[in-house]
Amino acid sequence: MGRKSVGRWLKAGQAPTHRKSGRPKQIDRYKDYLERRWQDGCHNAAQLWRELRDQGFSGKAAIVRLWATQRRRDLAVGSAAVSRELWRKLGDDAVRRAAYRGRS
């Protein structure tokens, strides 16, 4: 990091905040369709891209692959939380049963 950068930040009182551009993405127009197809069970990015292309989408397949990858990650994070909670509950039940059996 350069001295000038540090100097500017010190003068400003903080490091700069970088904002993503508010520019709409090409895929944004098709997100409702993608979400609907995803809910229907189509998780194949290549198939989704072909369907979008037939509707006039001019973006590359990589854009749809990135969307699908992010969707899978979001889904995995949600299911991991559910799994942890389920295992925690199952563990608690197993402990209670073992304690109950130990009383007799």
What do these coordinates show?
The structure is a single chain. This protein is an all-alpha fold and 104 residues long. It has one domain. The chain contains four helices and no strands. Helix 3 packs across helix 4. It starts with a helix and ends with a helix. The model has no long low-confidence stretch (mean pLDDT 80).
Helix count, per DSSP? 4
Radius of gyration over alpha carbons? 24 Å
| Count of distinct strands | 0
Portion in strands: under 5%
Taken from the alpha-carbon principal axes, the silhouette is flat
Q: Mean pLDDT, rounded to whole units?
A: 80
- What profile does the largest beta sheet have? none
Secondary-structure element string = HHHH
- Could you estimate the helical fraction of the residues in percent? 55-70%
Structural class: mainly alpha
Count of the separate structural domains: 1
Poorly predicted ranges (pLDDT <50, ≥5 residues)?
none
Our measurement of the CA-to-CA distance between the termini, rounded to an integer number of angstroms, reads 69 Å
Key features of this structure:
single chain; 104 residues; mainly alpha; 4 helices; flat
List the helices and strands and how they pair.
Elements: H1 3-12, H2 31-39, H3 45-54, H4 61-103
Provide a short characterization of the protein structure.
With 104 residues, this protein is mainly alpha-helical. The chain contains four helices and no strands.
